[in-house]
Amino acid sequence: MTDLYGTQRAMRNMRKAAIQRGVVAILDVGTSKIACLVLRFDSDSFDGGDGVGALAGQSAFRVIGAATTRSRGVRFGEIDAMAETERAIRTAVQAAQKMAQTRVDHVIACFSGGSPRSYGLVGKVDVEGDTVSEQDVARVLAASDIPEYGNGRDVLHAQPVNFALDHRSGLADPRGQIGHSLACDMHMLTVDTSTIQNLLYAIKRCDLEVAGLASGAYVAGISALVEDEQELGAACVDMGGGATDVSIFIKKHMVHADSVRMGGDHVTSDIAMGLQIPMATAERIKTFYGGVVATGMDDREMIEVGGDSGDWEKDRRTVSRAELIGIIRPRVEEILEGVRSCLDAAGFEHLPSQQIVLTGGASQIPGLDTLAPKILGQQVRIGRPLRVQGLPQAATGAAFASAVGLCLFAANPQDEWWDFEMPTERMPARSLKRAMRWFKDNW
């Protein structure tokens, strides 16, 4: 835990330095595409992220470079072939740098998959003085009862979602308030260590420094959910190419995250196998003619499959749109059933508001907003990311929800466990840092 704490603190300091220098890159490593945005920050507005809450340390920024390339070597949101992924990351970063006309050294990355697991932690301490200090907040976070999450997993996010001071609960920032007993509810998200290490290694091989890591589920929720939805309770379903991320927000904090190992690429694969055509042709047909709700017209609408196999008869084949929908719909239903079971496991039905927002590239299939409420049983809308200054029109679609969310994550750092100085009792017994802290406190 302390190793991870140290690396996260190092990333935080690196991000602060990069933002103060003025330029940082955003990298969304997905199964179907790798997107890179270059952000320029107004360093005067950056105040170091002092505060608890989603808008702590806000920074003004604009996008000055954007590029996207077809992802290679990534399956289910996890790196499968290192050299291929490295080449794709280099391509995207170099194109974005060329557009921005500046060199970038630091990137903040996000990824899907990694088998995320959520934990709810509770901590309680007595306040040392009359008012709650930053040290008290650090102590209550460190006093949280960390579960045994097993070897081979790392903590990616650890965020305080609620503070209680004496009998008053629901506090966003207890610092400076008068009270005796401080309690905290915290959400902790763990992912497979190998997923993180492979991503860090791939980025390092591209001669870039990682200044931050985030879960795709979290950043998609930040960008696709409007403020009221984040406050009252909503789920964001980010339907990517190889994985579908599910995140639940309430009181402007993420309280649960999960992942379904299926996405839009599986639909494309079904079309390719069902019609006996190459994947590239299947993707084109899905994009132009896909859908999940059949009408009477679809039997008569014929689609030319095309191809360049050299067999004239095979290349001139046509299929009806109703046949295509018959291939697409079962897979989409299967993905939505997986999302439904994730929401049920999280107790989503107990939230005051139960809005579900679908985003991501695979949410663009026509008719999905009609099919999804039948399976998920809630109000469903298709979400687009927030508008960001300087973002090209081509990057404003639902497929870029994670990339835009990562921009907001970089500019408005959400206070996490490692934003606060860790109390000495949580450090290893022989730590030099612990000895130095003891001297500082006692002499």
From TrEMBL:
**Is the keyword Membrane in the record?**
yes
What is the recorded function of this protein according to its Swiss-Prot or TrEMBL entry? Cell division protein that is involved in the assembly of the Z ring. May serve as a membrane anchor for the Z ring.
Subunit structure, per the record?
A: Self-interacts. Interacts with FtsZ.
Name of the protein in question? Cell division protein FtsA
Principal localization reads membrane
For biological process, the GO terms are: cell division
Topology with respect to the bilayer: Peripheral membrane protein
> Keywords, A to Z?
Cell cycle, Cell division, Cell membrane, Membrane
Q: Which residues form the SHS2 domain?
A: 24-224
In terms of Pfam families, this protein maps to: FtsA, SHS2_FTSA
* SUPFAM superfamilies found in the cross-reference section: Actin-like ATPase domain (SSF53067)
**According to its UniProt record, where is this protein located?**
Cell membrane
UniProt family annotation: Belongs to the FtsA/MreB family.
Q: What is the protein's species of origin? A: Celeribacter arenosi
